[in-house]
């Protein structure tokens, strides 16, 4: 974003969090929703983590507070095996990726919908995903 894009992005992030908090309040503030606040990243954490994730091939999505990465494998069996490993971990974490698969290609987007953006859960799952892909 030219001309102050980082400031605008942080303002939008704050607005998303405010909306998410308002929605949690309207829904009665369930324990699970309330605990999601502890998953938010501080500005310092976010800046460092995004540098690390970008270094490993993840990219920030401009239109959403999310991260994205594309993986290419030798064949469908490798791609599906990778997706199965990720699915099992995602289920353990109760944090599920948005993904798309065609033959040997897997595209993954990570976002915490309940928080309205990127959280520590996304980072933890992204790190697992990178390890799973490296072991295929």
Overview of the molecule:
With 136 residues, this protein is of the alpha+beta class. Helices cover 54% and strands 14% of the residues. It has a four-stranded antiparallel beta sheet with strand order 1-2-4-3, covered by helices on one side. Strand 3 and strand 4 form a beta hairpin. Helix 4 packs antiparallel against helix 5. It is globular and about 40 Å long. About 15% of the residues have low confidence.
Enumerate the strands of the largest sheet in spatial order, edge to edge or round the barrel. 1-2-4-3
- Unreliable sequence segments: 18-37
Q: Structural class, from helix and strand content?
A: alpha+beta
Biggest sheet details: 4 strands, antiparallel
Structural shape: globular
Provide the gyration radius in Å: 16 Å
Number of helices: 5
Could you tell me how far the N terminus lies from the C terminus, measured between alpha carbons in angstroms?
A: 36 Å
> Average pLDDT value?
81
SS elements, strand count: 4
How much helical structure, as a percent, in the residues?
40-55%
Percentage beta strand: 5-15%
Element-by-element helix/strand order: HHHEEHEEH
Protein traits:
136 residues, alpha+beta, 4-stranded antiparallel β-sheet, 5 helices, globular
Give the SSE map:
Blueprint: H1 5-26, H2 31-35, H3 43-55, E1 59-60, E2 67-72, H4 76-93, E3 98-102, E4 105-110, H5 120-134
Antiparallel strand pairs: 1-2, 2-4, 3-4
Helix pairs in contact: 4-5
Care to give the gist of this entry?
The chain is an alpha+beta fold and 136 residues long.
